[in-house]
Amino acid sequence: METASRPGLRERKKQRTRDALVRAALELFTANGYERTTVDEIVEAVDVSQRTFFRYFAGKEEAAFAVQEMTESHFLDAVHRRPPHEPPLEALRQAVLANWDTVGEAIESVVPIELHMRTFQLIESTPALLAAHLCRQEGLEEELARTIAEREGVDVDTDPRPRVAVALFGGVMRLTARSWGAGEDFSVAAMRELTTSYLDQMGPALATDWHTHDGGGPGRGDADGRGTDAGTRGNTE
User: pLDDT per residue over 78-131, tens digit each?
Assistant: First the structure.
């Protein structure tokens, strides 16, 4: 029993060390700036060696995106678990909303949500990190497009619809994240509410005619401005 338990204990210790390095790195990045923070400062904060740091990360950039990589992995898993009968945009919508129901706990197991949010703001304002972020997003969207194509039984290289649907969804999510970052409520609940609100506007935004004849504002797909699911599906199927 004792021998069998050792690998589990070792893995937990490794995970605790990695999490501590991530938290220390993000705290230093957000307090002092990404470029001005050194690996020496990160390892000193955790009281480990540089060798230990590079056992877990190729460099500072990898540490900066560690939590974001975890959230992306959670989201991809959620997409794969969606029922096959759901239309593409509905599957993406339900996956991201379901993801926000569970990913907050995963983030909090490594860093506070508020630190994660400050890291997002740091990425947006640091040219080197922003370039890496955009490159990562392109890779994520390509993986999502291929997942959707496989779900729908189409060839992603000859049928443009999977990439178009993911580009639309990805644009809405980037807008949502920027709005969240510009606000004052960094809670998961606030992010989920914003996500729902912005996704609800995809149908009205895709409507042929934004003009209304009842005195309502542009983009009102129905009486409460939420649009209809059919409106979204009609443009993606």
Answer: 999 999 999 999 999 999 888 877 777 888 889 988 898 889 889 988 999 999
- The Cα 227–Cα 90 span in angstroms is 14
Q: Domain ranges in the chain?
A: 2-58, 65-200
**DSSP letter for each residue of 44-71:** HHHT--HHHHHHH-SSHHHHHTHHHHHH
Write out pLDDT tens, residues 211-237. 765 555 544 444 444 444 444 444 444
Compute CA distances 226 → 194, 204, 217, 232, whole Å.
13, 7, 12, 11
CA nearest to 145, candidates 124, 123, 121, 170: 170
pLDDT attached to residue 215: 52
d(CA 112, CA 110): 7
Q: Of the CATH numbers 3.40.50.720, 1.10.300.10, 1.10.375.10, 1.10.10.60, which one belongs to the domain with range 2-58?
A: 1.10.10.60
Q: What is the pLDDT of residue 132?
A: 94
- Report the C-alpha gap between 82 and 85 in whole angstroms: 9
